[in-house]
Amino acid sequence: MASEPGSSSSELRTPVFNGENYEFWSIRLKTILKSHGLWDLVENGFDASDPTKEKGKEEGSKAAKEEKSVTAETLMKDARALGLIQGAVSDQIFPRIVNEETSKGAWDILKQEFRGDKQVRSVKLQGLRREFEYTRMKDSESFSVYVAKLFDLINQMKSYGEELLLIACKLVPWDERAGEGAAIAMKN
Q1: Which of 14, 126, 168, 179 has the greatest CB tally within 10 Å of its CB?
Q2: Long-range CB contacts (< 8 A, 24+ apart) of 11-20?
Q3: pTM value?
């Protein structure tokens, strides 16, 4: 019995993107698309033009029929990928991609808007660095809560391209109570 993605416990559950945590959502959806063999199509797109017109093949030839079959199969795979992407966004986000007819087009729109270009990512990373450097453990919070807060910031920084070595160097002088354990944990 075939099931829709996300409806069976054996299937990967498609995360719904609501405009927050784009980086984490995109990693999860990318994994799902890869598991269905669709990621390459989303990332690189495809040429939907009629292959027989460009190569001068006769309309009824065996080669032309095979190429049309491959094109039809690619269109179906792209529609499946587009359906996964459309199903993985909230009703508030969906209007942004409603007019896109390819999975690559929809993915690129979301990527541009929510990940931003290099300059936008740089500004976001700068803000995260500042927040990371000024984060201090409050007297009222436990060490585990403080470390969880730091790891959340670290994961966000990594998703925007920060190198782990730079993060670890900032952590080393961080707090005597952490000792070498935190530096070792950061290595992993």
Answers
A1: 14
A2: 14/84, 14/87, 14/88, 15/88, 16/88, 16/89, 16/90, 17/88, 17/89, 17/90, 17/93, 17/110, 17/114, 18/90, 18/92, 18/93, 19/90, 19/92, 19/93, 19/114
A3: 0.60
